[in-house]
Amino acid sequence: MGEFIVQPTEDYKGIWVIAELSESGCLLDISLEALTAAKSLGESLHQEISAILLSATNQDTSQAEETLCQYGAQQVFSLKHDMLAQYQAEVYAYAISDLVGVKLPNIILAGSTSTSRDYLPRVAARTHGGFAPDSIALEVNAQGELEVTRPTYGENLWAKVVFPKNRPQIVTVRAKAFAKGEADKSRPVNSETLIPPLSPELPHTKLIQVVQGESKTGKKLEEAEIIVSGGRGLKGPENFKLVEDLAEALGGAVGASRAVVDAGWRPHSEQVGQTGKTVSPQLYFALGISGAIQHQVGMSSSKIIIAINKDSDAPIFDIANFGIVGDVFEVAPVLTKTIKEQNLAVSV
Amino acid sequence: MNIVVCVKQVPDTAHLRFDSNDQLAQESLENVMNPFCEYAVETAVRLKEAHEGSKLTAITMGPPQAKEVLKRAIAMGADEAFLLSDEAFTGSDAWSTAFILSEAIKKNLPSTDLILLGQFATDGMSGVTGPALAEFLGFPSMTFCKKAELKSDTILEAHRETERGLEIYEITLPGVICIMKCDYEPRIPSIKGVMKANRTEIPVWDAASLGLSADKVGLKGSPTMVAKTWRKPKKEGGIKVDGSDPQAAVSQLIDFLRQQKVM
Ligand SMILES: Cc1cc2nc3c(=O)[nH]c(=O)nc-3n(C[C@H](O)[C@H](O)[C@H](O)COP(=O)(O)OP(=O)(O)OC[C@H]3O[C@@H](n4cnc5c(N)ncnc54)[C@H](O)[C@@H]3O)c2cc1C
Ligand SMILES: Nc1ncnc2c1ncn2[C@@H]1O[C@H](COP(=O)(O)O)[C@@H](O)[C@H]1O
């Protein structure tokens, strides 16, 4: 494998968005959010927007390429290779780094997912680019430099990260932190298929098996606009019906605190917090959750937080927009019933 | 099997205090081992115990007081520890930290088979060090792992938890894995372990001994820089109502949601 050759800072131009496809080959929403963020950077910096797709040689990606162009990509580089059929950090990192060396992009954006956070640090290491993950705001300052805002210290302290000279400037954006733009159906598709020079010696990892998450609602926590989470205040796994019922009435997903995941009441795929998922829905309900800092880390950027807890001093009330000091067993069923009876719908 | 675990000292994020300028009050910070590093050490000790004749080495890069987390790692079961410390390392971002760690491993621990790290450090919350370290070493890497078991001298099975569910991978060693929360808890050091930690000498490696020039490390060697920090803006004063009359509380909540134009 050849060494990467670093070029002078000013030679790096243009903005890339690395798009991610789901198992079923659909573009993730978070990739379109990243693309919208890229568009506004592109306007400030007068730089071109390109989208990058990676897929197996025979995979039909024309739909995704069309969508990417409609959402603002001026061109799509569609990297195709049989070694890209199954995700592997080394292979992805190598394919992307190689293209970086050829095209010299100034900024690379991607949605913050467990995939991008797996291979992009390797791209940064290989290309000598800087990496700022999980950004919640992006700006171009008066000097025309990129400034990335990201939460640190358990979401307590926000930091502004800059890239003094190394390029590319690699950034992942947190789900829902940037609104997805509008598709412009009149935009032409402009896509180019490229074959990355991958050596069969590259991968040293092999996927053996995927055990699907057991989330009962089938809704993805990270993408849900409404989340109803339950904690130890529910007293037992059987009482999670209360949480599920409210989630169903609202059309939301079910989340959980670590205490109940550790107790085996709920699957880890539902855990919100420092050692679980980071979510930022429009509406977050915390039922019988104390609101420990490690839980807050995963949900404090939710738009509206509603808490039901019988302890009026519970820390969750410090961050709740609306709190009900009361017994979750009394309040939650009334809430669910009222929503159902009055046919109330949440518009988010 | 030669196993290395990289640990980091971080401020206890549950007890942060801020000064009048909304900056972290540094002197009030209580330093602990990064919680994910605790899981990494626990996993490393388990691997060592399951594979006779293994050696576990803990390393950290940090100021002199970071020795404390190395002592903790020894007390939990590591055999030896090294502190990477130099004025010149100050200001290193995760990229640069990974670079320094990789140079130290290449130079002083060249027969390493497996390196474990935490998934994130709770201060920077970046998750960059592990995969970047692997790239610098030319090793495979796996993030978001919650379990690891050796299948043979060169094959490690790792369980990775992602949005898609639980993914089971085989990694050909030498390799790097980053540990999230596991299904087991990190062990509490025994008294015997603590005594051993106090007895064990912890050598220091500085930039010169690693053959690193000052412009390749620290702030100068870092592709990113924190230009400014500020305390996260507080949520505006929330509404708190009494729920002893559930119907009344629910009506107030629904009114609130209507005002917020979400219902
Ligand atoms: C390294 C580390 C990582 C962690 N990561 C996470 C994480 O990712 N996610 C996470 O959630 N936690 C995490 N934790 C754990 C966290 O510190 C808390 O222990 C946990 O969030 C508590 O869960 P809980 O709120 O459900 O339980 P508790 O703290 O026990 O709270 C239960 C709440 O229910 C209320 N209650 C009881 N009965 C009723 C009732 N009838 N009606 C209404 N309210 C009632 C109580 O007043 C109480 O506030 C982590 C901890 C550590 C050290
Ligand atoms: N200064 C350091 N010394 C040793 N290990 C580190 C250091 N910084 C980060 N790490 C390791 O990298 C992991 C992830 O940290 P980060 O990439 O900073 O989020 C930590 O859990 C540690 O295992």
Can you describe this structure in just a few lines?
The complex is a heterodimer of chains A (348) and B (263). With 348 residues, chain A is α/β, with parallel strands linked by helices.
Features of this protein?
heterodimer; A: 348 residues; Rossmann fold; 2 domains; seven-stranded parallel sheet; elongated; B: 263 residues; alpha/beta; nine-stranded mixed sheet; 6 helices; 13 strands; 28% helix; binds flavin-adenine dinucleotide; binds adenosine monophosphate
Question: What is the topological layout?
Answer:
The complex is a heterodimer of chains A (348) and B (263).
Chain A: E1 15-18, H1 29-45, E2 49-55, H2 62-70, E3 75-80, H3 89-103, E4 107-111, H4 116-127, E5 130-135, E6 137-140, E7 146-152, E8 157-162, E9 169-173, E10 191-194, E11 205-212, E12 226-230, H5 240-250, E13 253-256, H6 258-262, E14 283-287, H7 293-299, E15 304-309, H8 316-319, E16 322-325, H9 328-341
Parallel strand pairs in A: 1-2, 1-4, 2-3, 3-10, 4-9, 5-9, 12-13, 12-14, 14-15, 15-16
Antiparallel strand pairs in A: 6-7, 7-8
Chain B: E1 2-6, E2 9-11, E3 31-33, H1 35-50, E4 55-61, H2 67-76, E5 80-84, H3 94-108, E6 114-118, H4 129-137, E7 141-150, E8 155-162, E9 165-172, E10 175-179, H5 191-199, E11 204-205, E12 225-231, E13 239-242, H6 246-259
Helix pairs in contact in B: 2-5, 3-4
Flavin-adenine dinucleotide (FAD) is lined by residues 231-233, 257-260, 271-276, 288-290, 292, 294-295, 298, 308-311, 314, 327-329 of chain A.
